[in-house]
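mind reviewing these tokens:
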Amino acid sequence: MPGMTPSSPQSERIPRYVPYPMAMQILVRRMSATPEELAIWIWLGPEAGGLKAYEFWERPGRKRRLRFPDGFDAAGEPCFDYMPTLMGAWFASRDVERFTPKDRYMSGAALIARWAEVPRLDAKAFVKAKIAELRLQDLHPVTGGTEGSGPMNRRLPPIEQGFFSVAEIEVIEREDLGRKGTKPLAPEDKQARSARLKQRHRELAGKVPNPTRTLAEEEGISDSRVRRLLRESRADTASPPRASIKRPAGPFDQLQDLSTQAHLDEKKRSARARKSRA
């Protein structure tokens, strides 16, 4: 196994290489990272402030750097799904523990939802305008960019599936939207994303035959992942169990209490009597 090194007992406790689930747990603990952010960091690589990942290998010295697919499926049609490749990634445990990202990233869908709250602003058109001004760079781990930077190229994913630098977003909000003195932006966490997807699913419900499939295509993720995020959103917003209402004790309850106490006293006396006879 690539993660095991037989050199010492300590190396068995802390593998030299770790698979995606273990690496993701470390990054979530250290910086609340998201899987999508990790995909961008891998695509950037350590040369651009990202993280190096490897494909699975069976023999020492044969590991290869992980590469995302080229954006086409077996039939030659555009395919922007990078999750299966990401799930098979391996990492040097030292790299993951010491990793400090050069920048954090927010999804295009989350950015559009954020800027949609600004009055009289077409959020998606505003994102396209900032991309055209070269003040906002759109990234995608499969194609490198989105339709925002190549509007005539239908083989690029929609802006909603792209990722944007939090640092660049903060500059635009300060200089163009006048948002000063606000707390630093944070990438969309799992709970916030679940809530946003729930709202979007509700909006699509009356407009398209299959809102789950449409939402999955917008986000660039699988239908099953959308359903899982929606379930988590429902669990988070579920109402707490109703407290039971205690009815005031009446005469009948008091008689029951006395009867119960008398029964317990009798059992105690019987037990003491049996013990004394023994």
